[in-house]
Amino acid sequence: MKHARGLLSILLILTNLTLLCGCWNYQDIEKVLLVSGFAIDKNEQGDKYLVTVEVIDFEMAGKEAKQSGKYVESEGTTIFDAVRNVINIVGKKMYWAHSNILIISQDIAKEGISPVLDLMFRDTEMREEMYVLISKEKTAQEVLKQELLLSQTSSDNIQSMITNQKGVGLAPIVKVYELVDILEEEGISTVLPAIQLTKNSDKKTAELTGTAVFKSDKLVGFLNLDETRPFLFITNKIKKGLISVNEDSSNQMDNITLEIFTTKTKVEPKISDKKLTMNIEIKIEVALGELETSVDYIKKDKQDKLKKDAEAKVKASVEAVIKKVQNDFSTDIFGFGRITKANKPSVWRSAKQEGTNLFKDLKTNVKVDITIKNSALASKPIKKGD
Amino acid sequence: MFKSKKIKALPNKKAEAGSANGTTKDDASAVSANGLKKTLEENIKIISELFKDDDTLVIRRFENEQNNDFKFCILFTNGMISSTAINDNIIKPLMLSTSIDSKKNLLDAIMYHVLFSNSVEKISEVNKVIESIVSGDTILFAEGSSEALTIDSKGWQTRAIEEPDGEKLIRGPREGFTESLIMNISMVRRKLATNNLKFKFRTIGVQSQTKICLCYIEGIANDQILKELNKRLDTINIDGITASGMIAELISDSAISPFKSVGSTERPDIIAAKLLEGRFAIIVDGTPVALTVPHIFIEYFQANEDYYINYYFSSINRLLRVLCFLLSLSLPAVYVALTTFHQEMVPTPLIRSISAARQGVPFPTVVEVLGLLITFEILREAGTRMPSAIGQALSIVGALVLGQSAVEARLVSAPVIIIIALTSISGLALQKISGALMVSRVIFLLFSSIIGLYGYIFGILGLLIHLFSLRSFGVPYMLTLMNFNPQDIKDTVIRAPLINMKYRPKFIAPNNRVRNTSGGKKK
Q: What's the average model confidence in pLDDT over B228-251?
């Protein structure tokens, strides 16, 4: 009797464990296709989604299996539908947890990206840490199917471009969950990195080219590379990067490059004369990275001039970007609205009640402070002897 | 139901053992009731009847040279005695003696004036006579005396003291136990020269009459454990003990647990250290492996060399052993869980290379892992049992054929070979726990092949529950994890400097805890 009870309880525990357990699908990894990235387009008729998936394929080369990326296209009325239809084409189930790249075409982005994002946000397999990009080309799949310079898969190439932006500071990095957060939030609009094909060594390769600007979830325009950095300065997202300054010396233009070490931006709303002003204070720590001249900019007086010029240049570019976004797109990608809501809630509330667009005519007051820390390993420029 | 059957079966067995043994024992008691006879020939007849068909019994009759009335006879077992001792110390003085004159108190006179032996005893029971003969002593009968003398003449070949193969070290004493009980005891005695060190003999095994010796240090050892140990030793009723491992199993706390509650070692220095901690040692005649009780979990990870070398080094070694334990326990299970259930948890480059390696492998991952685990166990078992001359052939077949060719033929994938190799090498680093490791590793693997990491975690929980419920002679098996006392931690996963290890473990030696008050330079 006692043993029967023990046996029964063990049986109960085992059946419960197997039946109530969330993940219980034993699958050997070689039986699934590992997806590394995918692109979403509309088909030519414009009624169905066209999903282009890059999967990792293993070719048996002698003893070893060689990896390479292969592309599979599939159509469906929804993205989930299209994804499932892939099984009919390649015969294997796709495994999405290791997919890192999602490229969305301009057409879809102009209509709104939230329908596309839902699957990435909802599905258990797909990661919310996936990077989202907007194709500047006609379709998204041609970017994914780029001709590669190095032997790697296209998605890996694009992913490393994005993750290494820390050292360049030329494109915003946005993951699916961040995108969804910002889409749902008031007082800030979405941006995504833009990607396009450029010719390099006779090959059409993908390249990050600035920022795609959204109003709500619809694409309204692009910022180019030069406008992207000031945007990143304002949103405090830049970690590393370069500032190039042209100094007017006696008989020529001296090209000087400053390497950014740290930046810190403080945005504060102020009310003066009943008008809202944004105080933007950018503090940048730099080092002299490159002096293409024999003029010694390390000397105190020259250094001060260099600093002033660099500050003026950054300030001008920042102001220009704000102006451009205000006039051309009138969408608050800098998150000024969010800051106002947090710091001056009454102003935000009254503006919302009156239905006025705070951002459109917002005054900004930009202050840039650059500190030159050092001149790297050399203490003077290269002098030309005879 | 099962339990009651067991209890019923036990007395039956006892009776059976008694009856099987009956012929000698019953006869002997019948004779001993009468005791020995007065005449020499009658006594010889009694003994030779008892040893009928045993040709190793030697009966040697002789007389005193001066006075032929003094007739003697010695009896001994061939091969168990030292001939020189018998010739020079028994026969020669008895033949040549002039000091014996009357038949009155003859044996006393012989004992006091004639025999050159350090151990002589007067006996009158036939039982004792048999005992002496089979244990290598010589029995002396004298005409007209109803008693006999048992004279120590033991002498047989023993193995020399060598370094034990199973427990090697680099720095420290190299001697190891041999099969001789007395020699082993002397090795322990030499390390602990105190009269508090107690050696209690007892005999176990109805047929084998194996001598065992219980050692402990009075004043340090816990009396309750001693009582419990004696109680368990008393319950042993078996026909024969051929090695100490059998005693270990018979007195262990949990018969079904793969974890041992009785420790074992071949080294006298380890025994001495355990005795100093308040533990008990059981040395068994005929086995070079001595037992120690109580044995707790952390002792699997302690080595004697830890105390002889720098404590940083030994602490790192301890941590490595714990790591080995965890690796050996979990690697196959975690590998199967990650690659077949939770592929999202593996970094992308790694999952791709594992996937690349799995291309073309015909078996599911779990079958692959299980198969290789079994293959390794076969190799290990074959390597242990086979003659060492074939060793090279085995390693070639094992390493080349199974390892390389299996991967080349794509029967198994390379990552699995690496996993199994790491698992087994880690397991080999912990020789004494390898049995328990082998069992739990396979159980974990099966669990995780059914429900992934959930199964693995359930396995771990089960193992922990089991370990925490174990006790060794009343001492909690996971002693140092149960009561978190900084003093007790000092000799567990790390080895603190000796100067800081001031106390003995609380549960093992509760009455005499201070062991070390050295001050070093500070004092």
A: 93
The CA distance from B356 to the nearest CA of chain A, in Å, is 5
A281 and A367 belong to one structural domain: yes
Same domain, A266 and A375: yes
Chain A residues with beta carbon closer than 8 angstroms to that of B360: 30, 60, 65
Residues A192, A49, single domain; the answer is: yes
CA distance B30 to B17: 19
Give the gap in angstroms from C-alpha A99 to the nearest C-alpha of chain B. Answer: 9
> For residue A107, is it within any domain?
yes
Separation of alpha carbons A242 and A357, rounded Å: 34
Q: Model confidence at B444, in pLDDT bands (50, 70, 90)?
A: very high
Residue at A93 is within a domain: yes
B358/A30 Cβ within 8 A: yes
Of the candidates A26, A36, A67, which has its C-beta nearest B341's C-beta?
A26
Q: CB-CB: which of B2, B351, B452 is closest to A29?
A: B351
pLDDT above 60: residue B440: yes
What is the spatial distance between Cα B448 and Cα A17, in angstroms, rounded to a whole number? 12
Q: Is pLDDT of A171 > 80? A: yes
**Position A21 confidence tier, pLDDT thresholds 50, 70, 90:** low
| Per-residue three-class SS string for B154-169 | ECCCCCCCCCCCCCCC
- Contact yes or no for A192/A171 (Cβ under 8 A): no
On whether residue A14 sits in a domain, the answer given is no
Same domain membership, residue A214 and residue A123: yes
Which domain, by its residues, includes A382?
224-386
In sequence order, what are the residues at sequence separation of 6 or more whose Cβ sits closer than 8 angstroms to the Cβ of residue B173?
A: B267, B268, B269
What is the identity of the amino acid at A114? S
Task: Identify from B355, B365, B454 which residue to disrupt to test chain A contact, counting A C-beta atoms within 10 A and taking the largest count.
Answer: B355
A185 lies in the same domain as A235: no
The last residue of one of the domains, among A201, A223, A245, is A223
State whether A150 and A118 are in the same domain.
Answer: yes
* Percentage with pLDDT > 90 across chain B: 42
B349/A contact by beta carbon, under 8 A:
no
pLDDT of residue A126: 86
- The model's pTM is 0.82
- Residue A351 is inside which H or E element, if any? helix A345-354
Q: Quick check: B393 and B387 in contact, CB under 8 A?
A: no
Rounded to two decimals, the ipTM of the complex is 0.80
List all residues of chain B from 302 to 341 with a beta carbon under 8 Å from chain A. Answer: 339-341
User: How many domains are contained in chain A?
Assistant: 2
Chain A residues near residue B455 by CB distance under 8 angstroms: 17
Query: Does one domain contain both A154 and A209?
Result: yes
Q: Check CB contact under 8 Å for A125 and B454.
A: no
Query: Predicted confidence band at B522 (pLDDT cuts at 50, 70, 90)?
Result: low
Cβ <8 Å between B352 and A67: yes
**Is B448 near chain A, with CB under 8 Å?**
no
Question: Domain of A277: which CATH number?
Answer: 3.30.300.210
Q: Which of B1, B351, B356 sits opposite A98 (nearest CB)?
A: B351
Would an 8 Å CB–CB cutoff place B462 in contact with chain A? no
Average pLDDT, chain B: 86
B458 contacts A30? CB cut-off 8 A: no
Any domain includes A106? yes
* Residues of chain B neighbouring A54 (CB-CB closer than 8 A): none
Q: B222 near B511, Cβ under 8 Å? A: yes
Q: H/E element holding A369?
A: strand A363-372
- Across the interface, whether the CB atoms of A65 and B2 are under 8 A apart is answered no
Q: Strands of B178-324 (E only): list them.
A: 197-204, 210-217, 263-265, 280-284, 290-293
Boundary (domain end) residue, out of A158, A190, A223:
A223
Q: Are residues A203 and A232 in the same domain?
A: no
Residues in chain A with CB shorter than 8 Å from the CB of B355 are 29-30, 34, 56, 58
Q: What is the pLDDT of residue A255?
A: 85
Range B135-144 average pLDDT? 89
